[in-house]
Amino acid sequence: MLELLREGPSTASRLARALGESSGATSYHLRALAKADLIEEEPERKNGRERWWRRRSDMIVIPTSKEDPDLRAAGTRLLGVYLDRDEDAMRRYLGGESQLDEDWVAAKFVGGWHAWATPDEVDALGERIMALIDEFRGAERMRSPETRQIYVTFRAVPWLEPE
Question: For the whole model, what pTM was predicted?
Fold first, then answer.
C-alpha cells in the first residue's frame, strides 16, 4: 500500500481493488500505517464517508535497530519481500524476453560492481539514485506511446568474504 500511495493519494476502496483485497482489510492496514505516522489523511479530498490517504514522505526509510529486536525482525521481513520481488521480476523477464521488441531487449540493464564507501556515502548514493528514479515514476509523468512500466532495483550492501 505504501508503494501505491507513493503514486498519489487513494482510498481504502481504490487500494483494495488494486491489491485484490477487501476494503475492510485495506482500511485496517491504512489505520495501522497512520498510527505509525507513515501516512496521513488528506482532508481536502474527503467526500462523505470516503477517506483519502497520502504518504507523509516520498521516501520512507525502514529503521533497523540492534536495540529493538521487533523492529529488526520487521526490517528483515521487509527486506525478504523486496528480494523476493526482485527475483520474481528477473524470472518474469528471462521467461518472457522472447515476447519483447528488440529495442526493449537491447535496452535492459543488469549489472553489479564492487566499490568502496562509508555508511554515510552509501546513504547519499541511495538518495541520489532515488532522485533519478523519481524522474520516471508517477501517474502524472508524460508518457509516449513506446513507454512501458519498468522495474528498477538497487542494492548497496557491504561485501562479506566467504568464511
Answer: 0.66
3-state secondary structure 99-152: HCCHHHHHHCCCCCCCCCCCHHHHHHHHHHHHHHHHCCCCCCCCCCCCCCCCCC
Q: Provide the terminal-to-terminal Cα distance of the chain, rounded to the nearest Å.
A: 39
Between the CA of residue 44 and those of 101, 109, 117, 120, 150, what are the distances in Å? 44, 41, 44, 38, 32
Q: Is the pLDDT of residue 122 over 90?
A: yes
pLDDT in tens, 39-94: 999 888 877 778 999 998 877 666 666 777 777 787 788 788 889 989 999 999 98
Task: Mark 33-60 as b/e (b = at least 16 C-beta within 10 Å).
Answer: beeeebbeeeeeeeeeeebbbebeeeee
> CA 21, 37, 86, 9: dihedral to nearest 10 degrees?
60
| DSSP assignment letter at 49 | T
Task: Give the domains, in start order, of the chain with CATH numbers.
Answer: 2-55 (1.10.10.10)
Residue with cell 568474504: 161
